[in-house]
Every structure is written in structure tokens, then in C-alpha cells.
Amino acid sequence: MKITTEMVKELREATGAGVLEAKKALEASDGDFEKAVDALREKGLARAAKRADREASEGVIEVYAHPGSRVGVILELNCETDFVARNEMFQSLAHDLALHIAAMSPRYLRPEDVPQEELDREMDVLRAQTIAEGKPAEIADKIVSGRLSKFYEEICLLEQPFVKDEKSKIKDLVANAISTLGENVVVRRFARYELGEGLS
Hey, which bits of 25-177 come out as E strands? Predict the structure, then answer.
């Protein structure tokens, strides 16, 4: 199949890939747009993993107040250079993350941040529920570990499905930004405030 300039342009707009990369991906997939997108995403995620160890000390502090000013979020999103920190895609990611935090109320950044006592308590509850449902004790642990990932999705930012597109997790958005921007991108920390929270 002949790869046209229009096809390359469309793929570049969808993935942020370079002209040559987009053309090669289309040739390798025989012009199949979806296969080419998948191939480029896999390459990008592999590159993102390589960049994860690089220091990210630049970035932005994003401040978001939900309409009505009842919920506010402060987020630190880091990258490697001030050039990327000023990039529109990077700033848009920071805004989307802050908006997501306002809407979904994550309590922790990643599963490793959940205190052990909270995790133990949740596992005890899940195990008791599983046994109460009549599941055999030998498969209870497998069921508990499956339900534990659901628990992480509820309380850990990086594990949550993105509020604007539930097919993507927040960690996928960050990995895509790394592959597109060519720098390590790190969600450093966040705080969410809700009016009147903790007063009662």
C-alpha cells in the first residue's frame, strides 16, 4: 500500500511522532492506522521507561480551583528542562492532572505510598468479604489481590482511570507525555482541599 503524506501527517498529529518514525510505522503496518499507532505507543513507552531514572527538577506548580471555589488543588509536576516546563502539552497535562485530582479525590500518589496498616486493614476486610461470599479459602488470596488493584484505583492517583477518558490511567498519560516530550516527567506531589473538610 502506498503511504501518502496525508497519512503520515495524520499519524504524527495523533501520536506526536517524527516524520520518519510515522512513515516507518505505517510501512511496517501496511498502512493500517491503528496498528501504526499501537507500534509507536509501544516504542514510546519503552523509551519512557529508559528516561524514568533521569533527574526531573524543573516543571510547574499548577493551582486549580473548581468552579464555585469549593475544591482546590495544588500539584507539582516535574520535567528535566525549563524548555519543556513552558511547553503547551506539559502545561496542559499539569492542568488535566489537577482537574482530575479535584474530581476524583485520590489520597496517595502510588500504591507504595499507602500506609501498611491501611493496606492490612483493607486486605482483612476483602478476605472476610470473599469468605462470606462462600469462596474457598485457597482461592481467596487470588480474589483479594484482584480486588486490591480496584482499591488502588480508587485511592492512588497514578492508578486511577483518567476522568476525561476512562480507558487511560493517569500513569499512561504521564508515560505518553514522556515519550512525546522526550524527557522524564514526574508527578512529585499534590494536595487537595475541600471547603469545610475535617470540620465535623
Answer: 58-65, 71-79, 161-162, 165-169
CA distance 112 to 93: 23
* Amino acid identity, position 174: V
Tell me the CATH number of domain 58-109+156-194, given options 2.40.30.10, 3.30.479.20, 3.10.150.10, 3.40.50.300.
3.30.479.20
Count other C-beta atoms under 10 Å from residue 129's C-beta.
14
Give the count of beta carbons closer than 10 Å to the beta carbon of residue 62. Answer: 20
Task: Output DSSP code: residue 22.
Answer: H
CATH architecture classification, 5-51: Orthogonal Bundle (1.10)
Residue owning grid cell 492532572: 97
Average pLDDT of span 180-194: 92
Is the pLDDT confidence value at 34 over 60? yes
